[in-house]
Each structure stands twice: as structure tokens, then as C-alpha cells.
Amino acid sequence: MRVTLEVWRQDGPRASGRFEHHTVEDATAEMSLLELLDRLNDQIIEQGGKPVVFESDCREGVCGSCGFLVNGTPHGPVPHTPACRQHLRAFPGVSHFRLEPFRAAAFPVIRDLAVDRSGLDSLVRAGGTVAVMTGTAADADAAPQSHHEAEEALDFAACIGCGACVAACPNGAAMLFAGAELAHLARMPQGRQERGRRARRMVDALDEQFGPCSLYGECARVCPAGIPLAAVATVNRERLRAGLRGRNRDD
Fold it and tell me: Choosing a second label site near 157 at 20 to 30 A (CA), which of 15, 40, 50, 171?
């Protein structure tokens, strides 16, 4: 199976980038996009060149580190699937791929396909955690929670933090990611005691590093974890709730 690739090459954040053209003659339908890049790097190294830099870790669709643009779409055209789980068999008749890093002001290119997504880490530091007492574990039934509420919290907790939502948004917004964090923790008993403070801090971090929501929903369409668009509405709802309850209230 012959596959041609246009791959973005960039030596650093301040360097000029360009596309390189390559051909992989022995690709197979079972290869994932990352395995295709592995094979390409084998060829480049054999020819004395520098391999393409890209991120990966678990390669099971869990860690969220493998994101890049595939023919202009974050992760690739298969819906709700990260790049590491998109295989060539899913692209019948497609033999040309254009691979480039996520394009967003908040994600500067480190090198080639790897970008700096520490802006998402700043959102987590701002409010994506809960304060709990350490020591002996509490009884399982000490903090009651309905089954429906727990399932909703788990649905929002499925976000893998890949940044595809930011790359898809023309304004570079991270509302889907922040909304997933806020919606998850607002439904958990452990997170309610600092709910207002969390919302204010995360909204401040959003305004500082990311753009405004585009209102078109591109983020939800490319999310590999299937986070619903309702997460975006959660940001505005939690912002309003925190404002109405006042600066001196944490809950």
C-alpha cells in the first residue's frame, strides 16, 4: 500500500516551518496514523535524516498526547477517535495525508508536530482539582450521590485533555475543556465546597490564555472523548452562579 505524506517540519517555536513530501511504500491497512509516522521515521533515519517529532504515550486513546491535524481535521476524519486509534483501513481510497501541528495561539509549536499544551495545564491548576482531607478513607456511603448524577459526572470526566477543541475553534477557545472540568466537579460531592472559587479561577485563566467561544460547536464535533456541547454552557452557567453568590462565597 503506497501512501504519500505532506508533513510539517519546524525546528523550533521561532523557526520558519515548511512541508516535506515523503512516500511510504509498504504501509498496511492495519497501521494507525502513529504507526505510519513510525514507519516514515524509520525511512528518514535510514537515509540519514532527522525523524519527525510527534507526541504519543499510551496509544490506546486515553492519554490525549497524540493530537495533530490530519488533512485539516484535528486527529483525523473518523469522529470521536484520537489519532492513535485512526487506522488506514478507515480511509478507503485515501492515499495522501497532510499532517501538521494543532494550529492555535495558545499552542506554540515545540518542533514539527509537537506543540506546547501547557495552557490546558494552567486551567487544571486554576480549578480542576478538589481539596480533600487526607488520612483514613471515608466510608463509601459517607457522601451520597445519585446514580444519574454520578453517570453525568463520569461522562464529563471522560475528557482526555488533547486540545483538539482548541485547535478546531477559529478563536482558539478552550471552553469545552474547561466546561468538562467544571461540569464534572460540580456534580461530585467532594468538589462542591469550592465550586464558586473554582469557576472564578478557571474563567480568569480562560480569558487570559484562550480566545472567546465561536458559538459554532466545532469543538464538540472533533472531540475524541465525545464531550457534549453542554459543557460549553456549563462555563457560562458556573460563571454566572459564582458572580451571583458573591466573591466571599466558595460554594
Answer: 171
